Amino acid sequence: MELVCPSCKTTFSVADASVPGGGRDFPCPSCAQPVPAGWGVLEIDLGVDPKAAPVPPSPTPVETPITTAKSPTVRPTPAAAVSAEAAKAAHPALSVAQPAPVEAGRVRVTGVTAAVDEESPWRIYAVVGGTALFAILVVVIVSLFERRPPPPPKMPNPLQQRVSSWRGQGLKPAVAPLAAAVKTAEDELGRGTDRGVKEAFNAVRAALLLDPDAPAAIATYGMVLADWPDRLEPDVVDEALAAIASAIGDAPSGRYRAELEAARGWLLLRTERFEAARQAATKAAAARPADPGIKMLQAVSRISTRPEEAAAELERLAREAQAPRRLALWRGEAELRSGQIGRALAIWSGSLSGSAADAAVLRRLARLAVDAGDQAGAFERLQQIEAAGYAGVDDRLLLARLQARALRKPALAIATLDAALADPGLSALNRARVLSEKAAVALLAPPAFVSAATVSGWLDAALDLAPDLPELLYVAGLVDERNGAIDNALQSLEAAAELAPDRPEVALRLALLAKDDPSLARPAIAAANREVAHYVPAHLASAVLLLAAGDSSGAAAAVRRAADFDPRRYADEHEMDAFVDPPAAHLAIAKLLSPYARRSDNAMLTTAMGMAYYFAQDFKRAEATLTAALKSDPEDVGARLYHAILALGRKKIPVARRDLQAAAAADSQHAVVRLYQARLFEQLKKPAEAERLYRDLLEVNPLDTGARLGLSGVLWGRGQKDAARAEVLKLMRTRQGDRDALRFLVAADRRPMAKKRP
């Protein structure tokens, strides 16, 4: 239905199905004034003057022009008259006045004229009957429309409650009118800087204070949150998504549909809901297909599944006259996911201009350096961000982790975190994250570095701000355990495990702390082994619990299971994330295993102790313990494997070779033993033997990460660059954002290729 606003004369359309029988007002998309919409009454004109009085029946014959014969006079019988009068008395609302005589030879319907041939009386009957049927049909249709269920209730806008909270805090619009506030926010976003995003937030908040239901303000608010440089509370993102859905529901064909769908798409990408983001991008493109920003959103939404197509589309978009902001950032990401690390680095490096807009690209380069194990490169990028004044919370958190865990300089890390806390605009969530990281730094530092009371004060302040932050609860549990507050530690770790069931570090500490309570400890370790099977310490903790229950055969099986995973994998994946994994936990496992190993003189339990010392980074004790296990049982596969891994780390190639040969003789199909044999062949400059082993492993298990990356490295070394990338991409498609794969790609482009053989 087409509507015209009586105020500003704007013409717009609404769906017919959205207009009920009783009519409805629709807001004008331009001026927001209500515009009435309704269905007109269909009139059927049979030539009757509604003001004329009823004409009684004539007692004399009436001549008609239809035929030359005279029609007899028709009068109602007395019985019929009585029945009519009785019906009229019983149902006065149904009484109908007798119509005046109809003009012979003509029937009139509004908008329709039917001419009747005076010589064909049957045509009159056809026209009258057809008109009657048409009238009945109209009545039925109108009745159906009036009886259909009412339209669904209007979806509430949750931003109204947030705006009420802002008003309760005394906030008032800093920019007015609404259109000016939205325009200011859009201009600030266009600067492409972190400061611009925060200024855009202030402007769009003013717009929402003026009208929390304005579609333009809601769409811009969504874009501001999508660009926010630090972590957002999940409920803030969900609230914005619900507000967008409410705005679209009120005007599904409205003027701001494209902006609303685009904002929804970017927010969904931020939360890694890629398929939903792709659908939102498609709807935005349908409303505004030529918009460069929407084209970029469409391409970016396909990066996770079709990175090559996304990279090609973004490259075409870069050649257009008006390139969207942050196009270079996403072009590099698409190339990276396509395996073209060289192109990604070239795009990112080429986009740096020395301005504040570089912050997003520098931030991505710093994280890529961390993934690649390039700590020096990560420091360089993060210091650039810090020195230029662009650093946000996530930048300083990463910098502090590098300072505390890589450089072993906790005082420097604390200074970096204190600089983050000095930001007056820091949200409650991000302030809690920084305080949690300060406590984590103290955990890794010597005991005298910070007093227990000081660390507890940090944690209490953080828990007041964000009581449901899983990494904070985990660190609080570790601190309480160290301070002897075991009950508090158990409560914190249980809460953290419930909020983050995929983090095996939490389950490990909970199980060790509750080792005397099997109803709590065993489910925690079972969940850890199920969620992240390659976290070896959880299998060792499972062995401890089984030994305590008297199940020595189950404990032996748990130790054998622990030896089935590459010990490097988990450490490489989680070296610099929020869930700090202090060596004290793994040292506790070794101490718990020690009495069982001494009493039973069981080589496998001694091997488990040596593995625990390896993860506790006490390599001297690990080597001594594993040597003792091999004296007791020279064919113990786990002892041979970890003894060889320690030898490889110390460049003792002959020792590693002997141990791996002995382990392979004991178990020729052991996947991790064969994996390290292949790695040893690479160090011995025997790529053919290494490739054979890698391919054999992949034939048995195509998801073997170590073998896939190893094969890629061999192919790269032979100069088969495309084949190497293809192998890495197979891994990246099965494990989105795999750090090992990214690490290989970064290292590969820096690794010299051997000359191709003729």
Description of the molecule:
The longest helix has 27 residues, at 121-147. Helix 24 packs across helix 27. With 758 residues, the chain is mainly α. Helices cover 64% and strands 3% of the residues.
Tally of DSSP β-strands? 6
What proportion of the residues form beta strands (DSSP E)? Answer: under 5%
- Overall geometry: globular
Q: First CA to last CA: what distance?
A: 73 Å
> Nearest-angstrom radius of gyration?
39 Å
Mean pLDDT: 83
The largest sheet is: 2 strands, antiparallel
Give helix % range: 55-70%
Residue windows where pLDDT falls under 50 for at least 5 positions: 41-48, 55-120, 752-758
- SS field, number of helical segments: 36
Give me the secondary-structure topology.
Elements (H helix, E strand, L loop, with lengths): L1 E3 L6 E3 L10 E4 L6 E4 L40 H13 L15 E4 L2 E4 L5 H27 L11 H10 L9 H13 L3 H17 L4 H13 L6 H17 L6 H14 L3 H14 L4 H9 L6 H12 L8 H11 L3 H11 L7 H13 L3 H13 L5 H14 L3 H12 L6 H17 L7 H14 L4 H13 L3 H14 L4 H10 L4 H14 L4 H13 L3 H11 L4 H7 L9 H18 L2 H13 L3 H14 L4 H13 L3 H14 L4 H13 L3 H14 L4 H13 L3 H14 L4 H12 L8
Antiparallel strand pairs: 1-2, 3-4, 5-6
Helix pairs in contact: 4-5, 4-6, 5-6, 6-7, 6-8, 7-8, 8-9, 9-10, 10-11, 11-12, 12-13, 14-15, 15-16, 16-17, 16-18, 17-18, 18-19, 18-20, 19-20, 20-21, 21-22, 22-23, 22-24, 23-24, 24-25, 24-27, 25-28, 27-28, 28-29, 28-30, 29-30, 30-31, 30-32, 31-32, 32-33, 32-34, 33-34, 34-35, 34-36, 35-36
